[in-house]
Amino acid sequence: MSAADDGKIDPAIVADLFEKHAEELRRFLIGVLRDGQLANDVVQAAFTKMVERGHETKEETRKAWLFRVAYNEALVVRRRQATGRNVLERVAWSVAQQQAGPEDPLVRDESIEQVRAAIGKLPAEQGRVVRMRIYEEKTFAVIAEELKIPLGTALGRMRTALMKLKKLLQDE
């Protein structure tokens, strides 16, 4: 193992790994995530973990380690995205189902209005992430970039907002 004096991997080794494998890793992640911006974020996360934990790896397995870490990070991103979409759809659907049959357009419109009103009750930073994701259909990577926050923060705000929305709508 090549590690610096502080127990961390030598930055030159990480730079060399980035130069050799970053583009291949990015292409792999685009196949997994279907989003170039998210793929870039996950590549950065994988190399960040290499900086933090790379001293624990063997030289001959570092490429495989990077791909495994990146794949796991990509799966986390996909799960968070799916959870956000599913929760909002289920909340809107359950509100409509509680009030009347699914064929009633007035009930559907009322449910949509209840969801909008509930979004208005969220803290500003959470409401903004929800509106950017749902109404503007922006990816979390774009939201994070525009708000100048880490991707994980954007995902966390969305998840917290969705939990609050569910509670607000169930209380009504």
How would you summarize this macromolecular structure in one to three sentences?
With 172 residues, the protein is mainly α. The protein has helices at residues 11-33, 36-53, 62-99, 105-120, 124-134, 140-147, 151-171.
Describe the protein in words.
This protein has helices spanning 11-33, 36-53, 62-99, 105-120, 124-134, 140-147, 151-171. With 172 residues, it is mostly helical. It has two domains: 11-76; 80-171, PhyR, sigma-like (SL) domain (Butyryl-CoA Dehydrogenase, subunit A, domain 3), CATH 1.20.140. The model is unreliable at 1-5 (pLDDT under 50).
Essential attributes:
single chain; 172 residues; mainly alpha; Butyryl-CoA Dehydrogenase, subunit A, domain 3; 2 domains; 0% strand; disordered N terminus
**Which segments are poorly predicted (pLDDT under 50) over 5 or more consecutive residues?**
1-5
Count of separate DSSP helical elements: 7
Mean pLDDT: 84
Largest sheet: none
CATH architecture annotation of the largest domain = Up-down Bundle
Strand content: under 5%
* Oligomeric assembly: single chain
Task: Kindly identify the CATH topology of the largest domain.
Answer: Butyryl-CoA Dehydrogenase, subunit A, domain 3
What's the structural domain tally? Answer: 2
Q: CATH top level of the largest domain? A: Mainly Alpha
Amino- and carboxy-terminal Cα gap: 59 Å
Q: What is the tally of beta strands?
A: 0
Helix content: over 70%
Radius of gyration: 21 Å
The succession of helices and strands, N to C, reads HHHHHHH
What is the CATH H-level superfamily of the largest domain?
A: PhyR, sigma-like (SL) domain
Shape type: elongated
